[in-house]
Amino acid sequence: MTVPAFAPETEERFALARQVADAVLFEGYVLYPYRASAAKNRLRWQFGVLVPPTWGAECEEHDFQHTECLMEPKAGATLSVEVRFLHARRRTVQRARPDGGFDTVAELRLDDRVLVPWDEGGEERVEVVASVDELLGDGVTHPFRRPAREGTAPVLDAAGRTVGRLVRRSEEISGTIRLSAHELDGPYRTMRLTAVVENTSDWTPPEGRDADREAALPRSLVATHMLMALSAGSFLSMTDPPEWAKGAVAACRNLHTWPVLACEPGRADLVLSSPIILEDHPAIAPESPGALYDATEIDEILALRTAALTDEEKREARGTDERAAAVIELADSMPAEVLERLHGAVRSLREVTGPVPAAPDGGPAAPDGGFPDEYGVQRPETPWWDPASEAGFDPARDRVVVDGRPVGQGSRVELRPGLRRTDAQDIFLRGRTAKVEAVLHDVDGGVHLAVTVEGDPGADIRREQGRFLYFQPDEITPLEDDV
After folding, report:
1. What is the 3-state secondary structure (H, E, C) of 103-133?
2. Which residues make beta-bridge pairs with 132?
3. CA atoms of 59 and 39, how far apart (whole Å)
């Protein structure tokens, strides 16, 4: 095994994948309103935290990630791996004394910012390159270590005078990357690749559990994820594998992470294994003006709310973290045309060609001269915002045609969530049977089936309250004739 710098072509592919991987790395790094004093910024880092083993044994957090996926390497191929994570460094604030010394303080107020204690996250990368042949058998093991560090940075006022300093300290962390592969039986030369990242720090928690996580974070690998690229060959999609590989994909074990194809569409030579479930070929929206770090919000709303913070709130945010300061500047300087782009975008359009199926009940056209959609449901031409557009729709009586069979209220179906769904709960429902409770339509012409899962003890309550699960027609298979 060797650990050289990546080949230029591999580094170029990784650079593109890092655009998405950065979103994983900094997911929830600092939340709106971007101030350390905000309650939701006091419990930091929720994704991909690999804690020291002695702490992981006492809590629900983990000290490892285990990835398995399938690959079809060509002869002589090499595997390049990049593990990325944040290394927390604890920042304290000190005020300068007249005698040249410094005192640790709770805050240091300047004209443009208010500096407070905070845990910053420094990006770390560990690179491993091994031939596929080296991965067979026992595979390869690559230990790594990051030593404890401490540094200071002066704090200057508007006149350039030293009014304080920031003291940053990071603790020692260590870990191990284990890579192995073995060939599978089947019609093609396919291997199951196993990649494990472990925190091997020997730190022991202090007495008293109240401070355990606070003390464990500087010794943890935060937002850990992995990029893997083949020099020759390809990976198989774990989300939508070919029919012949579905059994082998189902046998793969992925613990605390999930691998997806992270190269551009049409290629399959690079995988991102992430603690956040993504779809294959993820990409940053072209409308995105920059990193906002708080992915639980809608960018447009978040940008508007950030721009509306008071001057004092913005001073606190600027002093919390450099990335928070960048968000404030981004919101304050965002041109109107950029903000307008955040309002919405059409990703793709489908053209329905060929004869449109007739409504399954042979019903007449809508009163306003509407037309049947691709599922045979009558669509009025009245604008969506007009209340009259709801005329002709009946969730209890409407039917859609799926695989040539009418489906509506009372129909039994098998659930098979499509590629567009990224909610892990939907994956758990794959293959379950359900009862259709209603056929619904959105303003964009989409059709949605409201269902209750058979065997769900809460189905009656869901039905009474109208709290259903929703699937599109191409995500179900009819099980029997409509009832």
Report:
1. EEECCEECCCCEECCEEEEEEEEEEEEEEHH
2. none
3. 22
b/e string for 436-448 if b means 16 or more Cβ within 10 A? Answer: bbbbebeeeeebb
For 112-130, the pLDDT digits (tens) are 999 999 999 999 999 999 9
Note the residue count of the chain.
483
Q: What proportion of the chain, given as a percentage, has pLDDT over 70?
A: 85
Query: Which residues partner with 227 through β-bridges?
Result: 82, 272
Cα separation, 353 vs 287, in Å, equals 30
Q: Provide the 3-class DSSP secondary structure of residue 237.
A: coil
Stronger pLDDT, 384 or 326, i.e. the higher one? 326
Reference 131, options 81, 171, 84; nearest CA is: 81
CA distances in angstroms from 119 to 62, 165, 303, 347, listed in the order given: 21, 16, 24, 38
Give the C-alpha separation, 239 to 246, whole Å. Answer: 10
Q: How far is CA 376 from CA 156, 360, 411, 471, in A?
A: 70, 6, 17, 17
CB 338, CB 289: distance < 8 Å: yes
User: Measured between alpha carbons, how far is 371 from 357 in angstroms, rounded to an integer?
Assistant: 10
Distance from C-alpha of 8 to C-alpha of 206, rounded to nearest angstrom: 45
pLDDT digits (tens, 9 = 90+) for 219-252: 999 999 999 999 999 999 999 999 999 999 999 9
Identify the pLDDT of residue 390. 64
DSSP 8-state code for residue 78:
E
Segment 365-378 shows an average pLDDT of: 47
Contact of 129 with 198, CB cutoff 8 Å: no
- Here the contacts of 280-288 (C-beta below 8 Å, separation 24 or greater) are 280/237, 280/239, 280/240, 280/419, 282/20, 283/19, 283/20, 284/19, 284/20, 284/23, 285/345, 286/345, 287/341, 287/342, 287/345
Q: Is 416 exposed, middle or buried (0-12, 13-18, 19+ CB in 10 A)?
A: middle
Return all residues near 446 (Cβ < 8 A) that are at least 6 apart. 472
Bridge partners of 87? 122
Among 54, 123, 115, which residue's Cα sits nearest to residue 87?
Answer: 123
Listed residue (273, 268, 259, 195) closest to 233, CA to CA: 268
Indicate whether 253 pLDDT > 70.
yes
Torsion over CA: 204, 170, 16, 75 (sign): negative
